Amino acid sequence: MKSAKNWKDYSVIATGDGYKLERWGKVVLLRPDPQVIWKSESDMQSHPELCAKYLRSSSGGGGWEYYKKMPDEWTINYGDLKFSIKPMGFKHTGLFPEQAFNWDVMTQLIKNANRPINVLNLFAYTGGATVACLAAGASVCHVDAAKGMVERAGENVRLSGLKEAPVRYIIDDCKKFVQREIKRGRRYDAIIMDPPSYGRGPNGEMWKIESELYSLVELCSEVLTDDPLFFLINSYTTGLQPQVLKNILTLTLKRYNGKTFAYEVGLPTEEGIILPCGASGIFVSESAPTPEILKGDD
């Protein structure tokens, strides 16, 4: 398990009964979490600073219930990185804070590469990884099918003082975009992908991770340079083990010299436990120093 333990503007206060109580800067939210199947040791609903709770609907979806006056949108920091936070549909806030661990890994790899690094970020959402890679000195191609999420990514880049950084924003189906990049002869030194379990592209393209992930990674290997720095896959799909991601990377990137790592990502809580949040696998070039935080378990 690898945990994002360097946050100062974010923390998990408590967990239990299917919920997590979180502090996002000065705003406290209560959100559902399918991994939290244990009993709560406190009445999180009665927390004196609780601002809002996301309530699931029995018919699917849900909505926010507000208890205190709070901003419609606000900013939190992760070191020098800044992100806009806003309660949105389906319990989202516009950021996955557990990914800070992977941001730290990529930052170390890019800064120690001693060469220009061109990154392709697929299913890039609101740009947490894009901001981290730009801040580390890379150029980034940011691809997502949702126009609103790409616009929020641009806002996060500007908030972090990186508006002059070399970034391209692409609103497109990720697979079709990669196919066109292959035809154009474009190549990337690093690839990041955070695919959904299920999804649709802008023209109704269907995506199911179990049947599509291997072929997409195989396809993406065709836009890698001769000595790629890294290839990172992250997944929130329930039941998809880290070893599966490692196996896919090992099989599809066997022509490259490198090391492959796989791990769960999580968040430390103020209760003294780690909340599991997903799985990651990363291929790292043999010529790149392995980041210390990838070695061993937390």
Please name the defining characteristics of this protein.
298 residues; alpha/beta; eight-stranded mixed beta sheet; five-stranded mixed beta sheet; 6 helices
Give the number of DSSP strands.
17
Overall shape: globular
Rounded to an integer, what's the Rg over CA atoms? 19 Å
CA-CA gap between termini: 6 Å
Strand content: 25-35%
Mean pLDDT: 95
- Structural class of the helix and strand makeup? alpha/beta
What sequence of helices (H) and strands (E) makes up the elements?
EEEEEEEEHEHEHEHEEEHEHEE
> Residue share in helices?
10-25%
Q: Which blocks of ≥5 consecutive residues have pLDDT under 50?
A: none
Report the sheet with the most strands, covering strand number, pairing sense and barrel closure: 8 strands, mixed
In DSSP terms, counting alpha (H) and pi (I) runs of 4 or more, how many helices? 6
Strand order of the largest sheet: 1-16-17-15-12-9-10-11
